[in-house]
Automatic annotation (TrEMBL):
Residues 2-39 form the F-box domain. This is F-box domain-containing protein. It comes from the Eukaryota. The lineage of its organism: Eukaryota, Viridiplantae, Streptophyta, Embryophyta, Tracheophyta. Gene3D superfamilies: Ribonuclease Inhibitor (3.80.10.10).
Length: 444
C-alpha cells in the first residue's frame, strides 16, 4: 500500500461504505492516517450490532464518532449519516431513557454544530433518522440545510417529521428523496417553490399531505408512493420521462406529463383515474385489483411496446368473463413484449376456458410473453397452444412455474409445449412468493 500513488489511495478511501472502517484504518496504517484529510466523503451508519453493544458496554456515542470524523476532515463533498434499516423494527418500549436523543439525527441543535463545518463544498447530503426518536419531534433541518448548503446537488432525508418553515430556495439541487417522512407541506407548495430545478424526485411514504401537486418544469424522473389520506393527486411536469406512482383510491388523478416514456402505476381503485393520452409512452407496468376498468377506461397511448400486467388478486366471476388476453391486446394493439403475473395468467386462462381466444386485435406485433404460472396442468397446454395459433408473430415464450409445482406436471408441460411448437424459443424457470425468478433452462 505504501507504494501506491497518493491519488489512488485517496480514491480507495473515498469508496469505503462506512467511515468507521476508515477510522480504524488510520490506526493500522501511517499512510492512511497521513492522507485522511484528503478524503471528501463521510459515511457513517449505526448498525444494529453497534446499537445493541452501546446498551450493554461503554462505547463512544454515535454522534461523538460522527463529529470526530467531521472535525478531522476537510473539503468534504458528501456526507451520509444514519441508522441501519435493521433498527426500523424497534418500538418505543425498546428505548431506555439514556438514549432518547443519541440517534435523533435531524435534531436541529446537533445539525447546527456539524453542518457549518462542511457546508461550503457539500454537494451530497443524506440523513436517515431513527424513527422512534424522531417521529414525535418536528425538525427545522430543511431550513438550516437550505440556508447553509448553496452547492448542494443531492439531498436525502428519511424517517423524520419535517417542517418547511424557513425553507429557502435551493437553485442547485437536482435530486431530492424524502422517505417515510411526516411533512408539514399539505399541497407541496413549498417544495415546488424552493426546489425549482429538480430533475429527480422520490417521495416514498410521505404523510401529512391533503391535495398534493408536484409541479416542476425540469423534472425527468419521479417515484411517488402516496398514503391513504390524499384523494386528489396531480403531477405537472412537461419534461418528465419516467414515473413510478403508487396510490390507493384517488378521487382525482391528474397527469400533465406529455413526454413520459416509462410509467409504472399501482392503484387499488381505478374509478378516479383518467388522464390525457401519452404520446411518447413506450414502457408501461400496471398493478391493480381493478384491472379491467383500468385498462379499458384509461387512455395510455398507442405507442406502448413493453407492457407488464399484475391483477394483484383474482377478479370477480363477472369480470372473469370479460377480462381476457384479447382485452389486453385490444387496449394495447402494438405491444411487442407482454409480462403477466401469476394472478393475471390465471384470470385470462379462466376467460379462455369460458370462451376461447376469438377476434383478438394486436396479435401480429406481439413477439414475447413472460408469465408466472402458479398451478400447471393440461389446461395450460391448450391455453398456450391457442395463444400461439392466434399470435403468429410470437417467437419467444418465457414461462416460470411455481417452485412447488409437481416435477412430473412441470416436465409434461415443457415437453408438450416444446415438441408441438418448434418455431418458438422457450425459456423455463421457477418463482416463489417474495423470492427472485430463477431461470433454469432455455430451449428453442
Amino acid at each position: 500500500m505504501d507504494e501506491l500513488p497518493s491519488e489512488l489511495v485517496v480514491k480507495i478511501l473515498n469508496r469505503l461504505n462506512d467511515s468507521a472502517d476508515l477510522a480504524r484504518s488510520r490506526v493500522a496504517s501511517k499512510r492512511f492516517n497521513s492522507l485522511w484529510r484528503e478524503v471528501n466523503a463521510v459515511n457513517l451508519v449505526c448498525t444494529l450490532s453497534r446499537y445493541s453493544k452501546s446498551r450493554s458496554i461503554a462505547v463512544t456515542p454515535f454522534k461523538t464518532v460522527f463529529m470526530n470524523l467531521i472535525e478531522d476532515s476537510r473539503n468534504v463533498r458528501s456526507v451520509s449519516v444514519g441508522v441501519d434499516k435493521a433498527l426500523s423494527g424497534m418500538s418505543f418500549d425498546d428505548l431506555v431513557e439514556d438514549d432518547s436523543d443519541e440517534l435523533y439525527l435531524t435534531d436541529i441543535e446537533f445539525v447546527k454544530v456539524w453542518l457549518p463545518r462542511v457546508c461550503d463544498d457539500l454537494e451530497v447530503l443524506s440523513i436517515s433518522d431513527f424513527w422512534i426518536q424522531s417521529c414525535w419531534r418536528r425538525s427545522d433541518v430543511l431550513a438550516i440545510i437550505s440556508s447553509n448548503c448553496s452547492k448542494l446537488v443531492k439531498l436525502e432525508v428519511k424517517n423524520a417529521w419535517l417542517s418547511v418553515v424557513g425553507l429557502t430556495q435551493m437553485s442547485n439541487l437536482r435530486h431530492l428523496t424524502l422517505e417515510f417522512i411526516r411533512l408539514d407541506d399539505e399541497n407541496l407548495e413549498k417544495v415546488n417553490d424552493c426546489f425549482p430545478f429538480l430533475q429527480v424526485l422520490n417521495l416514498i411514504g410521505v404523510g401529512g399531505l391533503k391535495e398534493p401537486k408536484i409541479h416542476f418544469l425540469h423534472l425527468e424522473s419521479c417515484h411517488w408512493t402516496v398514503s391513504n389520506a390524499p384523494l386528489s393527486l396531480a403531477i405537472v411536469a412537461p419534461n418528465l420521462l419516467e414515473l413510478r406512482l403508487k396510490c390507493n383510491k384517488p378521487k382525482s388523478l391528474v397527469l400533465e406529463t406529455p413526454k413520459l416514456v416509462k410509467f409504472s402505476l399501482s392503484v387499488d381503485d381505478a374509478e378516479g383515474v383518467s388522464f390525457s393520452e401519452f404520446r411518447e409512452l413506450d414502457t408501461l407496468e400496471v398493478m391493480s385489483p381493478d384491472m379491467y376498468r383500468l385498462i379499458t377506461n384509461t387512455r395510455f397511448g398507442n405507442k406502448i411496446r413493453k407492457l407488464a400486467v399484475d391483477s394483484v388478486k383474482s377478479i370477480e366471476d363477472s369480470e372473469r368473463l370479460k377480462f381476457g388476453l384479447g382485452t389486453i391486446l385490444e387496449a394495447f394493439p402494438v405491444i411487442a413484449s407482454l409480462t403477466l403475473s401469476h394472478v393475471t395468467w390465471s384470470n385470462i386462462k379462466t376467460h379462455f376456458q369460458s370462451g376461447g381466444l376469438v377476434h383478438m386485435k394486436g396479435t401480429d406485433t406481439l413477439k414475447q410473453i413472460t408469465a408466472r404460472v402458479e398451478t400447471s396442468d393440461y389446461t395450460d397446454v391448450s391455453f398456450i397452444r391457442s395463444i400461439l395459433n392466434n399470435c403468429k408473430g410470437l417467437t419467444d415464450m418465457r414461462l416460470m412455474m411455481h417452485q412447488d409445482t409437481d416435477p412430473g406436471v412441470r416436465d409434461l408441460l415443457i415437453s408438450a409445449c416444446t415438441m408441438s411448437n418448434p418455431r418458438v424459443r422457450w425459456s423455463w424457470g421457477t418463482w416463489s412468493e417474495g423470492g427472485e425468478d430463477i431461470w433454469v433452462s432455455n430451449g428453442t
